[in-house]
Amino acid sequence: MDLFHQPGINLLPRDGIVNYYGCVLDRCDAWDYFEALMVTVPWRHDELVMFGKPVVTSRKVAWFGDSDFSYTYSGRTKKALPWTRELSALKRLVEERTGATFNSCLLNLYQNGGEGMGWHSDDEKDLVLDACIASMSLGAERRFDFRHKETKETVSILLEHGSLLAMKGETQRYWQHRLPPAKKIAEARINLTFRARVI
Ligand SMILES: O=C(O)CCC(=O)C(=O)O
Ligand SMILES: [Fe+2]
């Protein structure tokens, strides 16, 4: 048995908890969800400000939530969309597996390996402090990296199709994470990060 794939194991050596559950969907169901999300989610490029300049990301995003949450970042107010049938079902599955509850979900679509996400922590003020953030992956397998903010230790994991990863406790305070570009990968990946926002 691969120890890395037991959710009881903490992948981080200190200052936080990351559990990898491996695949929580069978391959056929995972592809059905991937295809349904591709067509039912209103994917849009994200707009943000980097080094004072407006930037449009190559990756696409969508944001869903319990009620009509809105949030402002980079000077733009965005509204959460109501859960779809597929997203409600995935939220239930992720809540059962992690034992946590979530009221919103950020979806990312990386159309190929050229697209990724740079180093950051999910430590926005409107997220419940130290609450679990659960990340589900569909489609292309991609590497995911953690880097400790002080010691610079790194931990990497391969996020498989249909898999679930949970970041808990002090993880966002002490660690950053990223999805590095992987130019050889031609296939798309969808990521869902279920979050608990302050209401
Ligand atoms: O695509 C991923 O696996 C990571 C996404 C992420 O870190 C985020 O949305 O904050
Ligand atoms: Fe993140």
UniProtKB/TrEMBL annotation:
<dbReference type="GO" id="GO:0046872">
    <property type="term" value="F:metal ion binding"/>
</dbReference>
<dbReference type="GO" id="GO:0016787">
    <property type="term" value="F:hydrolase activity"/>
</dbReference>
<keyword id="KW-0227">DNA damage</keyword>
<keyword id="KW-0479">Metal-binding</keyword>
<dbReference type="InterPro" id="IPR005123">
    <property type="entry name" value="Oxoglu/Fe-dep_dioxygenase_dom"/>
</dbReference>
<keyword id="KW-0460">Magnesium</keyword>
<dbReference type="Pfam" id="PF13532">
    <property type="entry name" value="2OG-FeII_Oxy_2"/>
</dbReference>
<dbReference type="GO" id="GO:0016705">
    <property type="term" value="F:oxidoreductase activity, acting on paired donors, with incorporation or reduction of molecular oxygen"/>
</dbReference>
<dbReference type="GO" id="GO:0140097">
    <property type="term" value="F:catalytic activity, acting on DNA"/>
</dbReference>
<dbReference type="InterPro" id="IPR027450">
    <property type="entry name" value="AlkB-like"/>
</dbReference>
<dbReference type="GO" id="GO:0051213">
    <property type="term" value="F:dioxygenase activity"/>
</dbReference>
<keyword id="KW-0223">Dioxygenase</keyword>
<protein>
    <submittedName>
        <fullName>Alpha-ketoglutarate-dependent dioxygenase AlkB</fullName>
    </submittedName>
</protein>
<feature type="domain" description="Fe2OG dioxygenase">
    <location>
        <begin position="101"/>
        <end position="198"/>
    </location>
</feature>
<dbReference type="InterPro" id="IPR032854">
    <property type="entry name" value="ALKBH3"/>
</dbReference>
<keyword id="KW-0408">Iron</keyword>
<dbReference type="InterPro" id="IPR037151">
    <property type="entry name" value="AlkB-like_sf"/>
</dbReference>
<dbReference type="GO" id="GO:0032451">
    <property type="term" value="F:demethylase activity"/>
</dbReference>
<dbReference type="GO" id="GO:0006307">
    <property type="term" value="P:DNA alkylation repair"/>
</dbReference>
<keyword id="KW-0234">DNA repair</keyword>
<keyword id="KW-0560">Oxidoreductase</keyword>
